[in-house]
Every structure is written in C-alpha cells, then in structure tokens.
Amino acid sequence: MSQRFLSFHAHLREIGLLGEKAVHFGGPDDVLLYSGGPQSHLSQYSMLCGPSRKRVLVRQPSHTNIPPAQQHSPLKGEVQLVKEKTPFVAQVEEWKHGCWYHLTSIFAKSLPELLEKLHTHTPKQVFETPPDLSLPQRPFWSGALAYDMVQWTRPLQLQHVPDEGELLVILWLVERMVVHEKSTDSIQCHAIKGDQWCQEVSQYVEHDSVLEALTEPSASIETSSMTDDQHEQAIEAIRGSIRKGQMYQVNVGRWWSGRIREHPRRIFQRLNEANPAPFSGYLEAPDLGFSLVCSSPESLLKCDGKSIFTSPIKGTRPRGSHPEQEIELRNEMVLDEKERSEHRMLVDLMRNDLSAVSKVGSVQVERFDVEAYAQVQHLVSQVSGVLDEDSNGLDALQAVFPGGSITGCPRTVVCAAIDELEQRPRSFWTGSIGWVDITSGACSWNILIRTLIARKQRGQWHGSVAAGGGITIGSDPKN
Q1: Is residue 242 included in any domain, yes or no?
Q2: Residue 1: is its pLDDT beyond 60?
Q3: 186-228 pLDDT, tens per residue?
Q4: CB environment 5-29: b (16+ within 10 A), e (fewer)
Q5: 73 assigned to some structural domain
Q6: Closest among 177, 180, 111, 181 to 138, alpha carbons compared
Q7: Which pLDDT band, with edges at 50, 70 and 90, does 2 fall under?
Q8: Which domain range does residue 167 map to?
Q9: pLDDT of res. 213
Q10: Over the Cα atoms of the chain, what is R_g?
Q11: In angstroms, how far is CA 354 from the centroid of its own chain?
C-alpha cells in the first residue's frame, strides 16, 4: 500500500509534474512527508507537496555577529547563559524565470517570530476540497529545522558553532499537495480553486506504476567522528558529571561520513523498504546540492490549533527472531528499572515543556505503549496539553525544540554538554521535518533521527549519518 504512493511520486516526476520538468509550475525542489509501515494511530497519511513558488532559508550568521562561546566545561558545571539573542536573518526567495530569486529578508530572534512574519507571504484561502482536519486546510509551510537552531530556542551560546552561511532552516510555501490516506488507499489532490497543477495531477491518481527495482550500490569508504575508545570515554565523562550532580542524562552522538554511490532518492526508497517509519521524509533542493533522507519513528510535536501532543521515545530493544524471543525482549525492556526510570524522566521533561504553553492542569500522559518497528521496539508515551489563551502551535514549537529524547535533562545544560562532547554542530540530525499552518498554528513535526544528510559537491553526493544514545548513571560504555 505505502509503495503505491512512492510509485505515484516517481510517476509525477516522469511525466513532468514534479522536479526539473515541472519548473513552469514552481521550483524543482522535492518535499515528501511520508508515513511508512502499517496503518496505526501514528501512521495514517502521507503528504506530497507540489512545486513551490516561495521558500525561506536561514543560514548561520557570521562569527562576528554570533561568535563561539569562550571555552568552558558544562560537564564540570561551567554553564554560560545568554539573556539577549542576536537576530538571525531569513531570506525569502521567489521562483520566477526558472530560478530562485531573493524577494526580501526577515529578521527574527525566535522560531515563532519568524513564522509570524511569514503571514504576508502566505495565501489565506482554504483548499477547494479540504482534507482531514488533522492535515493542513489552507496553504502552509513545510521543510526542516536544523538542531543548531538551539541557538535561538535555548539560552546558550555554542562553543562549536556552524560554519558561516551553513543552512539552518529551509521551508517551502505549499499551495498544493497530494495526500495518501492509508485506511482507504486513496490519493487526492488539494489546492486553492482553479489550481492547474492539481487539475493535471488529479488525472493520474488511479495510475498504477511500479518502482524501479533497487540494486546493491558499490561499497564506499566512511570515516567516523569518534573511535570506539573515544565514545566510551565520552560516556564515562557523562557518568562522572552525573555523579557530581551536574545533570541526569545526556544523549551523545557519533557521526559517520562518506561518498554516496546512488541518488538520495534511491536511498529513501531503500530505507523505506528496510525500515519503514511513520514520520519519514524526503527533502531535496537541487540548486543547493542539499537533501535529507529520514526514517524517523518519533513525533516531536503535533498541534490541531487548540491541543498539543508529543510522543517521546526512550527505551529500546531489538526485535526478536521468533515470537517467543520478541516477547522476552519486550518484557525485559518494560521491566528494566533503568529503561523505565529514563523513560519517566523524559516524560516529565516533555510535560514541563508543554506546561509552558498549556492551560494549568491540562497536561497529561494519554498513553504508554511498546511500539515495534522493522529492527527495534521502543517504549513510547503520548503527552498532551490544551494551549493557553496566549499561546499557539508556533509557541509550542519554540518550547519543545530540540526534543528531550535526543538531548537529555536538564535541557539547556545538556545541550551545552552535547556541544562540549561532540565538538561539532549537529546540523539537521536531531532537528525536525514537518509542516505548519501559520494561520491556525496547526502543525506536525518529527525528530530527525535515522537520517541521512546529503550534499552534492562537484557532481558527487556525499553523506553523513549519526547515531546516539541517552547516557545515564546506569549506562555501560561497553554496551
């Protein structure tokens, strides 16, 4: 069922309704929010965004404007807080004459301020045939936020700042989209009345095509940001800091980088077959030589305009090779004192985040599950709240970003400790892909784990992936 929508995506590219053949409709950029795996309360809809005519880019300011913090050690309790944020600059671009042209600049000190200032660039008409209420009802913005936007969501200054001009945010204005509803296996186009692209796409929704078969790519040489010994030393440093009372848990990551032997779009197809996940996504900006390939199981934030939800994941075991082993591993995870304690700590952290923008007494844990995916099974909770009168989904995004499951607790201190330990920017890993209706505040954002960051240089794609784990006093470095 899910492969049908990927086939439809490929078919639209072939017939010139997406990609470089569709430039008379908008840019060739690709935006696909894909819900893989079986239908569930998490996996219901996939969204394919039509060619966009506007996009927003935020890049790292110069080191003169935002210099690296002076060397210090958050692991030793040396915390440097920043009270007043230096604004970042968002470049609004418009697609015309076959290129992206600079339209205007937006100065902002936070994500809500940026999104609010996009009102003047966003049509207000609702779609002619609105989709399900859990999806956008009118033109919206979709794209990705780098983890390094932590510089404007937490009161800290990084020691290892991104290079000047490094991409931090890319958002596209989506005026037309195609939605795949899993329960009915139906595909429908949604746009403002009279949209020519949507009219043409609607002729092909029943088209039945087959994805090109995947072949195994040739091997590539990869490098890592840490050796195994260095990784173990980082874990011991965290445990030592926990013993001294500086923090409770830190998620530390390790990177692998190398040349990619096939197009990132093929890697997305491969990943969906091997590890389907409900919050997957594929983004590509050809002129920037930039692509994200994501197969994430984790939701950072969902908002319907009134209520907000987050689904933190903490606690992991492999899938079993047979049903009895599967149950044994699941019970081991559920009954493990460390896993349960760590999960409860994360849930409390996210409850605190939601409380900052929710009505008093409205934040609650709605469900606690074990979710099984292709390779692993997780402990997952869903935490919800009702927005207070002075807050909306844009404020909620600011409150929860970056997610607690990929940082730790207490949040600001561990973000500084991550910077100290990893000694490099995280870029889009552990950031978010999603969409936001800036009129209503409705939105949906994932956490960018199990993600490839791909960049094209001199005609060749290169990629980086990272993996991390939450480290507590009970963590064993050898494991």
Answers
A1: no
A2: no
A3: 999 999 999 999 999 999 988 777 777 788 887 888 999 999 9
A4: bbbbbbbbbeeebbbeebeebbbbb
A5: yes
A6: 177
A7: low
A8: 2-206+256-305+426-471
A9: 79
A10: 22
A11: 18
The most distant pair of C-alpha atoms in the chain lies apart, rounded to whole Å, by 65
Q: Give the pLDDT of residue 26.
A: 97
What is the C-alpha to C-alpha distance for residues 38 and 371, in angstroms, rounded to an integer? 12
| Domain annotation covers residue 152 | yes
CB 294 within 8 A of CB 35: no
pLDDT of residue 378: 87
pTM over 0.70: yes
Residues counted in the chain: 479
CA distances from 79 to 90, 270, 413 (A): 29, 43, 7
Split at pLDDT 50, 70, 90, the class of 368 is: confident
- Total number of domains constituting the chain: 1
Q: Sort 219 into a burial class: Cβ within 10 Å, 0-12 / 13-18 / 19+.
A: exposed
Pairing of strands 30-34, 279-285: antiparallel
Distances (CA, A) of 278 to 6, 101, 201, 294: 14, 34, 25, 10
Task: Look at residue 246 and tell me if it is in a domain.
Answer: no
Kindly report, residue by residue over 84-103, the tens digit of the pLDDT: 999 999 999 999 999 999 99
CATH code at 291? 3.60.120.10
